[in-house]
Structure to design on (89 residues):
């Protein structure tokens, strides 16, 4: 549970400047890989009614929302040139 909160806090911080597109993309790739691995474990161990933990799932969904709504993924706010470069990657 604490891991989800820690990742959510890390996602909310801009570690790299906005023009460091490659580093931001790499960071997001690492975050997404971790979030997907968490999802696999949650689905395997905590989805059925006997082991279901509401707070754990709540923290996971807050983490997912934080990831999806972060500034570096809001491509509509980028210039068209920057968007094109990101799409080419």
């Amino acid at each position: 549970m604490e891991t989800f909160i820690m990742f959510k806090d890390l996602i909310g911080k801009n570690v790299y400047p906005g023009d460091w597109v490659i580093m931001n993309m790499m960071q997001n790739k690492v975050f997404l890989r971790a979030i997907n691995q968490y999802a696999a474990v949650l689905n395997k161990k905590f989805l059925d009614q006997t082991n279901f933990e509401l707070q754990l799932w709540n923290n996971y969904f807050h983490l997912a929302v934080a990831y999806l709504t972060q500034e570096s993924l809001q491509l509509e706010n980028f210039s068209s040139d920057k968007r094109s470069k990101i799409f080419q990657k």
User: Anything to note?
Assistant: The mean pLDDT is 89. The longest helix spans residues 21-45. The two ends are 33 Å apart (CA to CA).
